[in-house]
């Protein structure tokens, strides 16, 4: 298959950065998929004298390993690394050639300390924007530590393998042939799963922060940047860098940037934050917060952090429908990401719960893959914009069910159906289907604040003043976890800056 001219031009620039000669060791046969992979590899080889292609016996057909000439490697790709995984392929080329991966020194030390052989496989779909984070993390581990090997498995070319293992959500990771984890995760979170979380002692050397930001999304990074620019000691504690924006594929309302994808935007934001003196503590979750003479934050690990002020930028998470079967079949047919998991439901019947913009956008995307899509809306009318409703009406494999209540998701080892009731007649109905995509909005990530003394509204949002101040002195809040009227990326960024300036103003007055 041929790469387009623009991609080839960009790739050519990256290939000039190769540190040493690379061999693409491929297991190929005469089947159609092998020919696609062969054509792709031949095109790459033709672009650089530093790259060659040779046959190699590997565990899957078609697949290939990226190796430095004359050396072994643990980085493999089964299938075509295109779509969102093309970046994973480029980075693997550079890193295997000897170009250092962009990770902190303490992460490299943790990887190098793994002293037992481990073989990882990550099942992906090429439309999944969460998968590259996991693929790239394991590829880095494989480059840094020869005890570790990793194979990206493209689900479209290995459907039989995906179905035999019952994989219904991506990314799904297997370790030494056994299910290990699924869903988006950072390299820090994956290391925690492999080696155990950082111990309490790892935080013993932390001094008192002037501003401690909790949250790694748009609001949190904005707050950290604004605080650091004031020259005060700033920390940023994040369970996941990037926040909810990492789940967003296309962003067209970021002023000054006509189009950007969520992961790309937040990668740029993180680099911006790192350009300042900010102590970033990743894969760490706050457990409690209280105000004494200082603001004290306890982490899940048992560690304690102290600060003169804090900015809570906790973001939001997917709202659940809270019916029987939702938890039991999570990642077994119940999912919250149509872009990631949609291809796994090709030619199958699925349901989308929610008739707002996100619900209809999901239904439109899924209609191109699934045999039929049912949209279930609790209210008598759809809430989505008319332009989306018009697009849905034009598709003959979407059925809209309004004024209905989802009662139960049923199945055995995976989703097999959904039971709902008509809210007018109270009659119950059963839909035979294999996938349920929940799209009913977000809830603030404030559960852990219930006993903190912070004032929350009936939605669980933190009530804030114009400067981001909460009802507790020295504690500020910003973004989707607050009672702001609108939840948008650009608004979260602005509120993060406001809260940081409010915290700085508090510091100089106290």
TrEMBL record:
Q: Which residues bind NAD(+)?
A: 349-363
Q: Do the record's keywords include Flavoprotein?
A: yes
Asked if the record carries the keyword Protein transport, the reply is no
Q: Which residues form the Thioredoxin-like fold domain?
A: 119-189
Its GO CC terms?
Answer: cytosol; protein-containing complex
Necessary cofactors: FAD
Q: Which UniProt keywords apply?
A: Disulfide bond, FAD, Flavoprotein, NAD, NADP, Oxidoreductase, Peroxidase, Redox-active center
Which InterPro entries does the record cross-reference, listed alphabetically? AhpF_NTD_C, AhpF_NTD_N, Alkyl_hydroperoxide_Rdtase_suF, FAD/NAD-bd_sf, FAD/NAD-binding_dom, Ferredoxin-NADP_redctase_2, Pyr_nucl-diS_OxRdtase_2_AS, Thioredoxin-like_fold
Start and end of every FAD/NAD(P)-binding domain? 209-495
Binding-site residues, FAD: 210-225, 470-480
Mention one GO molecular function: NAD binding
One Pfam family for this entry, by name? Answer: Pyr_redox_2
User: What GO biological process terms are annotated to this protein in UniProt?
Assistant: response to reactive oxygen species
Q: State how the cofactor is bound.
A: Binds 1 FAD per subunit.
Which cysteines in this chain are paired by disulphide bridges?
A: 337-340
Family assignment from sequence similarity: Belongs to the class-II pyridine nucleotide-disulfide oxidoreductase family.
Q: How does it assemble?
A: Homodimer.
Q: What is this protein called?
A: Peroxide-forming NADH oxidase/alkylhydroperoxidase reductase
In its UniProt entry, the species of origin is given as Streptococcus troglodytae
Lineage, broadest ranks = Bacteria, Bacillati, Bacillota, Bacilli, Lactobacillales
């Amino acid at each position: 298959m041929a790469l387009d001219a623009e991609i080839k031009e960009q790739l050519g620039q990256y290939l000039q950065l190769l540190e040493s000669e690379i061999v693409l060791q491929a297991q190929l046969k005469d089947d159609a998929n092998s020919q696609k992979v062969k054509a792709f590899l031949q095109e790459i080889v033709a672009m650089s004298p530093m790259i060659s292609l040779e046959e190699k016996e590997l565990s899957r057909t078609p697949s290939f390993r990226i190796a430095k000439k004359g050396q072994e490697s643990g980085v493999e790709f089964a299938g075509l690394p295109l779509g969102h995984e093309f970046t994973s392929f480029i980075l693997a080329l550079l890193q295997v050639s000897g170009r250092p991966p962009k990770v902190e020194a303490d992460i490299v030390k943790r990887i190098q300390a793994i002293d037992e052989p481990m073989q990882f496989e990550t099942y992906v779909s090429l439309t999944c924007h969460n998968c590259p984070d996991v693929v790239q993390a394991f590829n880095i581990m494989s480059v840094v530590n020869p005890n570790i090997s990793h194979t990206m498995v493209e689900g479209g070319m290995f459907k039989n393998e995906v179905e035999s293992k019952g994989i219904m959500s991506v990314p799904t990771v297997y370790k030494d042939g056994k299910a290990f984890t699924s869903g988006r995760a950072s390299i820090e979170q994956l290391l925690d799963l492999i080696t155990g979380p950082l111990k309490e002692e790892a935080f013993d050397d932390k001094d008192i922060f002037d501003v401690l930001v909790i949250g790694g999304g748009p609001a949190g990074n904005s707050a950290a940047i604004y605080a650091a620019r004031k020259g005060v000691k700033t920390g940023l504690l994040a369970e996941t860098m990037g926040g909810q924006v990492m789940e967003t594929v296309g962003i067209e309302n970021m002023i000054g940037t006509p189009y950007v994808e969520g992961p790309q935007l937040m990668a740029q934001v993180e680099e911006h934050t790192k350009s300042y003196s900010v102590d970033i503590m990743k894969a760490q979750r706050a457990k409690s917060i209280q105000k004494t003479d200082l603001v004290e934050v306890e982490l899940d690990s048992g560690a304690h952090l102290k600060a003169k002020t804090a900015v809570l930028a906790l973001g939001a998470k997917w709202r659940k429908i809270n019916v029987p079967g939702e938890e039991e079949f999570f990642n077994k047919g119940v999912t919250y990401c149509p872009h990631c998991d949609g291809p796994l439901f090709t030619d199958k019947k699925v349901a989308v719960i929610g008739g707002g913009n996100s619900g209809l956008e999901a239904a439109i995307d899924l209609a191109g893959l699934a045999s039929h899509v049912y949209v279930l809306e609790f209210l008598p009318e759809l809430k989505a914009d008319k332009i989306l409703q018009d697009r849905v009406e034009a598709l003959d494999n979407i059925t809209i069910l309004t004024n209905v209540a989802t009662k139960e998701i049923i199945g055995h080892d995976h989703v097999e159906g959904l039971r709902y009731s008509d809210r007018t007649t109270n009659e119950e109905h059963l839909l035979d289907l294999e996938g349920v995509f929940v799209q009913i909005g977000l809830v603030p990530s404030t559960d852990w604040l219930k006993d903190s003394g912070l004032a929350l509204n009936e939605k669980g949002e933190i009530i804030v003043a114009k400067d981001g101040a909460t009802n507790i002195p020295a504690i500020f809040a910003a973004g989707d976890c607050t009672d702001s009227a609108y939840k948008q990326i650009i608004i979260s960024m602005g509120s993060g800056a406001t809260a940081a300036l409010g915290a700085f103003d508090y510091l100089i007055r106290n």
